[in-house]
């Protein structure tokens, strides 16, 4: 039995070594990204100054772990997108609204706060939001359309043949907007199909405009975020699942969203067989971190505890004392923390997720398999 096992392992390993990634050139020469705070590399802070009062994430400790200064990324360091760019030998994807206007190697349209649904629609739903959310998926697609002639000026017909598109994550802000506007989880769940429709329509528009390779990200477990756990705190133990997340949010929003999205991606993939759609996951790795934190080098006692925040255990989240505001502290070891500021993940967690997208098992097919 043992010999057989060894043989199988060796068989699997050898072909991988044979086509080793290092050295061989990736097919991708640029990345075009759409999304929200999970992918924003600086658009919101650019846009907000001077339209909005200074945002907490334009201050340290945002950026402290990797860049040493705030960059507009809502993390202590890099995002999944940064790790992907790096693995493909490309520069970090420049934000569309930033100073760097050379988009030869890619452009990032993602804006923190961006919803999947358009603003006209959301405003019609009587949401009470502060700060207001802007730059929906539709708005980002308009930016893309405007920039497309200059992106394509040199490549001609097969303009996006070597471009990796990344769509999402989208949906998180839509759900948070409803939940934080006093809608019940059940009421919020009614919006899942139109939110997934909007994402799926966005993917189809990219295909129609020439995208050949598109990563579509699912949604993280909304009910496991310290900010959501604080706002929706309940005294009834039955409201929580075995990871300590809000069971109803997980069932009626996160998992429902992801199963619908997976189905829509399958449909699109068979409708457009000449496009490669890569299904990428935030949900499963996040749950794996909660389930077996030590396996990933994360501290088991702080998986639901916001590393940067105030209020103490269990969640260390207080919207009036948010990360980046004066006096708000950072945990001793961000490299062992999963949750950064109540709604976003640490550099360490983003790297773990990116590894799963690049090599598998959290992307199907894994990005590096498509790249080489
Ligand atoms: C734009 O960036 C590309 C690659 O990132 C580089 O080769 C090119 O020289 C740059 N163009 C200008 C005008 O700086
Ligand atoms: C906004 O979204 C709604 C719901 O998805 C859709 O019916 C409507 O056509 C969209 N409006 C605009 C202006 O795109
Ligand atoms: C929004 O509020 C208006 C005025 O109170 C009401 O007529 C409308 O039905 C509400 N729409 C939704 C979707 O709740
Ligand atoms: C939230 O909803 C509850 C129950 O529907 C209602 O009693 C309460 O006034 C609402 N609060 C706000 C701030 O709208
Ligand atoms: C994990 O975090 C807790 C609470 O901050 C701390 O007391 C403990 O020492 C940490 N464990 C390790 C292994 O660092
Ligand atoms: C949250 O922070 C504010 C401002 O520092 C403080 O006044 C309030 O008591 C805190 N709330 C909780 C529940 O700790």
UniProtKB/TrEMBL annotation:
InterPro entries: GDSL, SGNH_hydro_sf, SGNH_plant_lipase-like
Signal peptide residue numbers: 1-18
Keyword Disulfide bond: no
Keywords: Glycoprotein, Hydrolase, Signal
Molecular functions per Gene Ontology: hydrolase activity, acting on ester bonds
Repressor listed as a keyword: no
Domain of life: Eukaryota
One Pfam entry name: Lipase_GDSL
Name the UniProt record assigns to this protein: GDSL esterase/lipase
Cross-referenced PANTHER family: GDSL ESTERASE_LIPASE, ZINC FINGER FYVE DOMAIN CONTAINING PROTEIN
Coiled coil: none
Annotated family: Belongs to the 'GDSL' lipolytic enzyme family.
């Amino acid at each position: 039995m043992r010999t057989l096992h060894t043989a199988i392992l060796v068989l699997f390993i050898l072909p991988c070594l044979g086509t080793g990634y290092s050295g061989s050139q990736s097919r991708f020469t640029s990345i075009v990204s759409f999304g929200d705070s999970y992918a924003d590399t600086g658009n919101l802070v650019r846009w907000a100054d001077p339209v909005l009062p200074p945002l907490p994430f334009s201050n340290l400790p945002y950026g402290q772990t990797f860049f040493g200064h705030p960059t507009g990324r809502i993390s202590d360091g890099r995002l999944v997108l940064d790790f992907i760019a790096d693995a493909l030998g490309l520069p970090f994807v420049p934000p569309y609204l930033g100073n760097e206007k050379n988009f030869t190697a890619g452009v990032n349209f993602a804006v923190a706060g961006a919803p999947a649904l358009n603003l006209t629609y959301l405003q019609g739903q009587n949401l009470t939001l502060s700060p207001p959310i802007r730059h929906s998926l539709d708005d980002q697609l308009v930016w893309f359309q405007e920039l497309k002639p200059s992106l394509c000026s040199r490549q001609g017909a097969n303009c996006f043949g070597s471009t990796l598109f990344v769509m999402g994550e989208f949906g998180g802000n839509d759900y948070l907007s409803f939940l934080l506007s006093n809608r019940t989880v059940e009421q919020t769940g009614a919006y899942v199909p139109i939110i997934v429709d909007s994402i799926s329509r966005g993917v189809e528009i990219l295909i129609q405009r020439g995208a050949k390779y598109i990563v579509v990200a699912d949604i993280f477990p909304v009910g496991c975020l310290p900010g959501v756990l604080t706002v929706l705190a309940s005294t009834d133990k039955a409201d929580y699942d075995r990871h300590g997340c809000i069971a109803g949010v997980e069932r009626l929003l996160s998992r429902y969203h992801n199963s619908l999205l997976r189905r829509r991606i399958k449909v699109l993939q068979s409708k457009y067989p000449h496009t490669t759609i890569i299904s990428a996951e935030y949900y499963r790795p996040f749950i794996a971190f909660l389930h077996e934190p030590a396996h990933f080098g994360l501290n088991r006692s702080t998986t639901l505890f916001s590393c940067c925040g105030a209020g103490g255990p269990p969640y260390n989240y207080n919207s009036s004392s948010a990360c980046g505001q004066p006096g708000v502290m950072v945990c001793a070891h961000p490299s062992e923390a999963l949750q950064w500021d109540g709604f976003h993940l640490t550099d360490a967690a983003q790297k773990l997720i990116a590894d799963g997208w690049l090599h598998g098992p959290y992307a199907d097919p894994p990005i590096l398999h498509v790249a080489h």
